[in-house]
Amino acid sequence: MASYLDHLYSVEGKIALVTGGATGIGRMMAEALVRAGAHVMICSRKSEHCKAVAAELNGLDATGSAEGFGADLGSEEGVKAAASEVKKRTDKLHILANNAGATWGSSYEEFPRSAWDKINNLNVTSIFELTRDLTPLLEAAASDADPARIINTASVMGIMPVADGCYSYSTSKAAVIHLTKILANEMTKKRITVNAFAPGPFPSKMTAFATATEKGSAATGAKNPLGRIGRPEDIAAATLFLCGYGGSYITGTTIPLDGGYLVDTGDESLFPEVV
Length: 275
Known about the structure:
Layout: H1 2-9, E1 15-19, H2 24-35, E2 39-44, H3 47-58, E3 65-70, H4 76-89, E4 95-98, H5 113-141, E5 148-153, H6 167-187, E6 192-199, H7 208-211, H8 214-222, H9 232-243, E7 254-257
Parallel strand pairs: 1-2, 1-4, 2-3, 4-5, 5-6, 6-7
Helix pairs in contact: 2-9, 4-5, 5-6
């Protein structure tokens, strides 16, 4: 049984990059990959935090390993620096998880142009640019039997017509979903699969306003059709499905990790008013 499961879900010996990998969903993805045998590079704006998280992952009883470095993907220069850092560390990349992102909330009447530009630069433009710059490394790792993998982190808010005040965030995540399809179409000839996650609420810095306390987490979960917020295992299982051998025949799709929001016909808001 173990060998069969390993065949389907192991990423033993693969090399991965997880952007925004020090916290939240990125951390969940990075840990899953390390536990399943991959060597994972973690990057985000805070270099020391990435190195600390990498050290924690290296302390696990796991066959994989991790290293961390700083990268600010909110600018063209930052993306190029991140790509250069990856190329210093490896000549091939089996897995690219484009997870770094940010959000901004404001009223419709007062939503600033600066927030629109900032969020879309990080959430959309950086995915395109970093993927483009690292495509040669992905090609070097790809084969007919086992393609290289790209996972883009979108959101259910990129599918549902609801903003909750996060107009640029929701729009950017819709763009990520469409960009995923475009890149998937173009990357098939390079033997690279491109898919996306559309998470609902998970515990993270981004959702701390609603999930940081036990009361807030319970209230947010109560609004979900399955009655809870996401768990690390939900991200881990989906990550290993797409990145393991068993996921080699799926590309261009977005997997909702949302507990049923997209099939719920009730309240459209994802988050409760937490006092």
